[in-house]
Amino acid sequence: MTKELSHAQHLALSKSETPILLLEGIADTAVEALHADGYTNVTRLKTALGPEELKERLQDGVRMLGIRSRTRLTADIFEAAPRLIAVGCFSVGTNQVDLGAASTKGVPVFNAPFSNTRSVAELTIAEIIMLFRRIFPRSMAAHEGIWQKSAKDSHEIRGRTLGIVGYGNIGTQLANLAEVMGMSVIFHDQTEKLRHGNVTAADDLMDLLQRSDVVSLHLPETPQTKGIIGEREIRAMKPGAFLINNARGTLVDIEALARALKDGHLRGAAIDVFPSEPSSNEEEFISPLRGLDNVILTPHVGGSTEEAQERIGTEVSRKLIEYSDVGSTTGAVNFPQVQLPVAAAKSKRFIHIHHNIPGMMRRLNDAFGARDVNITAQYLQTEGELGYVVLDAEVKEDIAADLLAQLRSLEGTIRSRMVYGPSEPAPR
Fold first, then answer.
1. Domains parsed from the chain with CATH numbers
2. Residue 248 designated active-site
3. Which residues form the D-isomer specific 2-hydroxyacid dehydrogenase catalytic domain (predicted)?
4. In terms of Cα–Cα distance, which of 56, 48, 47 is closest to 76?
5. Is 7 known to be catalytic?
6. For 8-63, what is each residue's pLDDT tens digit?
7. What is the pTM of this model?
8. Residues 72, 133, 155, 300: which is the catalytic one?
9. Is the separation of the CB atoms in 319 and 88 below 8 Å?
10. DSSP per residue over 26-46, as a string?
């Protein structure tokens, strides 16, 4: 059941009062950053929560929520979280969040798009070497007492062609590592990209597939990329080539890949992400790729290094702090981007999230003007149907609550709050 807040809490919660919930074993660095800034009311759980339990927690007054990849934030969960002001995805992607529903409720969603780049690139390089050397089947044989000392079907990667589908942050770093190791690198991307080193662009996806000895996917999940590697694309690959997917599970037709591996068209694969993944470590992993020769299967750990998780913890918590303290939305994936200075000492900062409709700024200014309040700074940014306004004003304490209540009642308002601000001393 939803708890009632005091009059003061409705106006603005202090940092030490702000309830924050972190799920799925988010790194210590996140908690350390929050505590260092005065946010001490942090609950951290090692696991994800089911939808109903999560709704109950959010109805209990949670203001900021941190998740990784297992938690799914759907429209009904946002509907059950009236006091939630921000979500931090302690991951690269945000596919686990209904971003439209978050925007509708005025909740910015932050992530860490670059923090695990190196980890994924390193894993991919390691897999390329293991596939060409057939290390995985030889290792499994040795575990069973079978000695397979032979150079047959074992090759160097130097001089081989790596095809990278998606030449973004991870793709470019992978290309740098591969070139250092003597590989020729080609790429395909939907947009024109600056090329590094001796990397060249393929004419199109089919050209890349036909020329590459190993194809590595580094694309986001979008309607355009879903199923981008299907039966036709797999059969277009070089006979004896390898396929690596450390990006998104929906990119590859797993059944078609299994057939190509079984009939020998492909010599191997390394897959870290799957269309359907277990919801916990206790659930059995089911896949047609299990048991196939020279196939490396990993449980969605491409970015799961301690170094990456530490960086992600620091980056996402910093974005949450900046939004809570100052109202800055830089780095939000579903919100107008605004980088803000700290409010002046004598001013109070009001944040107003609204539908992007005519007359909104006039109504806001009228609310302040009717009380003879001096507005010292004003910031406005819109994106699609969403408007984001930050107002600094010299408001006396005795009228702040009534003014905030009026802002919340204005036609078109989604959410409004007063920022407590970074000037509040951190608890000793």
1. 7-114+307-419 (3.40.50.720), 117-297 (3.40.50.720)
2. yes
3. 20-334
4. 56
5. no
6. 334 467 899 999 999 999 999 999 999 999 999 999 999 999 999 999 999 989 99
7. 0.82
8. 300
9. yes
10. --HHHHHHHHHTT---EEE-S
